[in-house]
Amino acid sequence: MGADSLDGASVWVDLTTANTLRLPCQAARYIAPTTLSSLQAALYSARIHQWPITLLGGGSNVLLPPTLHGMALRPALRHWWLERSGDDVTAYVGAGVSWHALVMALATHGLWGVENLALIPGDCGAAPVQNIGAYGVELSDVLKAVQVAELATGEMYWLNADACQFGYRDSIFKRALAGKVVITQLALRLSATPRPVLGYGDLAARVSESPTPLSVAQAVCAIRQEKLPDPAVLANAGSFFKNPLVSNEHTHRLLKEYPDMPYFPQPNNQTKLAAGWLIDQCGLKGQRLGAFGVHERQALVLVHFGGGDRPGLLSFADTIAQTVFDRFGVLLELEPRVI
Ligand SMILES: Cc1cc2nc3c(=O)[nH]c(=O)nc-3n(C[C@H](O)[C@H](O)[C@H](O)COP(=O)(O)OP(=O)(O)OC[C@H]3O[C@@H](n4cnc5c(N)ncnc54)[C@H](O)[C@@H]3O)c2cc1C
Fold first, then answer.
1. Domain segments of the chain as ranges
2. Phi and psi dihedrals of 202, rounded to 5?
3. Which of 45, 191, 206, 335 is catalytic?
C-alpha cells in the first residue's frame, strides 16, 4: 500500500490490517498521496472515472465493509511546522501526520494545548471529524482552522473553527460536509505559557506540582495503557458507543432506582450518562459472543478476537444496545463511522 499516484495504485488491496478492528475488507483501489498535487491528481482521476471516494486515516474509528468499490484515499501529507508569535504558537500540520506522534513532539517542544490527547490513535486529518477528546480537552479547544479540498472540484479552502460546528464527538465533517471534502491540513493554537488541564479523573494525582506538557502527556499515556486494550494486541476501535445525552427528567427517574449512577449535567436541560457504566450494569462486561466481546476492563470497548466481520459486529452491538434500552430506556449510538 501507500501508492502516490493512480498509475501505481493497487487493484484489490486488502485493508484488513489497515483498520484497528481488523474487519476483513478488500478495496478496489487504494491510494495514499504524499503531496497536494498528487492528492489533486487522485481526485481528478476519481472524477473522470466516477469512482466514489472513501476517505481513510489510520482506520481506528471505522467499521469497514467486506468490499469497498471506487477509490479508498488516505491523504499521507506528513509535513508540519510551527509559527511563533511570543508565547503563542501555531502548528500547521498535514493530514497524514500521526496524531500521537504530533502530540509527543509538541509536548517535547514544551508547548501546551494537546498533551491530554496523547495516545489517541489515527491521523491528524481525521481528528476534526469527530472532534477527538479525552481527559477534559477536545480538539476544538485548540483548533484554529482546517484546510480542505472539495472532492468534486479539487478546490481548496480554509474553514475556521466556528465553521466546523464542533460538538461532542461531532462536527460538520460528519454532517453537511460528509463525503464532500477531504481534510488536508490543520492549524492548531498552542502556548508556551503553562495551562495544564488536570481536573479529569486521577490525572492531577499522576503529575508533579509543576507539570510540563511532556509529563502530562506521559501521565495520560500511562493511564490509558492501564485502562484500554492496545489495538495492536487485541483488535478494537476504542469507545464503541457515545456517552448518551438524555433529559434531566429521565436522569432523575433513573437516579431514584440507581443512586450511584454517574451523570454529567449539560446545557439545555440535558444530562450525559456514561455508556460504559450502563453496559456494565447489564452484566455485559467481559461477555463474548463468537468473534466479538465486551472488553473485560472497559465495557465501552468492543473487541474482535478474529474470524468475524462487520455484520457480526453490528449484530453484537445491537444486542448490547437493546439490552441497555430495555433496562434503562436509553438509546446508545455508535461512535465509529459505518463506512
Ligand atoms: C484504542 C483506541 C482509543 C481511542 N481513544 C479515543 C479517545 O480517547 N478520544 C477520541 O475522540 N477518539 C478515540 N479513538 C477513536 C479514534 O482514534 C479517533 O476518532 C481518530 O481521530 C480516528 O483517526 P483515524 O485516522 O484512525 O481515522 P479513520 O478511522 O480512518 O476515519 C475516521 C473517519 O474520518 C474520516 N476521515 C479520515 N481522514 C479524513 C480526512 N483527511 N478528511 C476527511 N475525512 C477523513 C473517515 O472517512 C471516517 O469517517 C480511539 C480509538 C482506539 C482504537
1. 6-73, 80-227, 235-338
2. -100, 25
3. 335
Q: Which residues contact ligand 1 via a Cβ below 6 A?
A: 20, 55-62, 75, 95, 120-123, 125-127, 129-130, 132-134, 173, 182-183, 228, 231, 236-238, 337
Q: Say whether 216 sits in a helix, a strand or coil.
A: helix
Q: Per CATH, is 235-338 categorized as 3.40.50.10990? A: no
More confident residue, 147 or 4: 147
- Beta partners for residue 273, in sequence order: 263
* Residue whose C-alpha cell is 472513501: 54
User: Which residue, 147, 94, 148, 166, is CA-closest to 123?
Assistant: 94
Q: How confident is the model at residue 11 (pLDDT cuts 50, 70, 90)?
A: confident
Residue 79: the pLDDT is 96
What CATH fold (topology level) applies to the domain 80-227? Answer: 3.30.465
Structure-block grid coordinates of residue 245: 445525552
Please state which CATH number belongs to domain 6-73: 3.30.43.10
Comparing CA positions, the residue from 333, 167, 125, 335 lying closest to residue 236 is 335
* Residue 130 Cα to ligand 1 middle (Å): 7
